[in-house]
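Batch 3, record 17
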Amino acid sequence: MADLSINTPREYEPTFGDYVALLKPRVMSLVVFTALVGLIVAPGSLHAVEMFAAILFIALGAGASGALNMWYDADIDAVMRRTAKRPIPSGRVEPGEALAIGLGLSGISVVMLALATNLVAAGLLAFTIFFYAVIYSMWLKRSTPQNIVIGGAAGAFPPMIGWAAVTGDVTLESVLMFALIFMWTPPHFWALALFTKSDYGDAGVPMLTVTHGRDSTRRHILGYTVLLAPVGLGLALTTVGGPITIAAAVVLNGLFLKGAYDIWRRDDAAAEADNYAVEKKFFKLSLYYLFLHFTALLADAALGAVL
Amino acid sequence: MKVTHELHDRRKSRNVGVGVTLVGFIAIVFALTVVKVTRGDPMQAFDHVVRPEMEIVE
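Prediction for the assembled complex:
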């Protein structure tokens, strides 16, 4: 008869940090920041404890979806250099553990967000987790070169959830905050894809640079950046905007459009000649773009509170 | 003195981590409860019997 012991010996005993790594802490930091901005700029207010709880459980929900993603993508992660050291492909955490942690934390985060704030915010969080884990990871990531666009939607939900935690509603402002991150993600990521040697091809993940070529990727970057500009300016003109956001939106979108135009104008031969200087500059700018856009919203909220 | 194996360190990290997380969770649930109770949020829900005090009066 087979050994019925559940304590089968394993070669590696995971540390607590190995489990934390399943939650993608670096992605969480962006989630915390954008959700916090959504919470603060929303009309109305929450008690400090509710606010802390809301941010914590939104971040936990994002982490849970990260764990589910790692569980499902372990085969891809094992092939690619960048992700081969993740807890599952490196053998530190069992796939079943990641699945259990992902599902468990998803449930806890959604229920706790509902109790701390309201059902709308909790529903949006549940949808975000479902969207990232099922629609993105399980379905579209491996089947379309537009996967970055789809994945970007999951990253765009946190400010909308933060807003809903306060207002219990989805409004134009929160939709535009969503749209800002959603439209920003493709140019941000594709710029990175242009100058990094990726092994997505080996893993069988369709990437635009591989499936449609690098010139097409340059056109896509420009296209999405052109669509992004009115979103940024539009957000600045809503009730959450103000003089600082308008100024930031004009400058940032101007610079971003210029950068995207420069990328579109040249080909890979020119890019290789200067070691992808333009693409790298655009990527760096994209990081500032999102951070400063949301910081400007915070600044305007602070300004409004003072005046 | 008994030297601890590296395995024990990892187990300890896991135990301490889970312990701290659970205590933190209790603290946040308690704090949320205090905030909601002191603010006078509705303290009861539908319980299969009519509760006139729960009905919203326009």
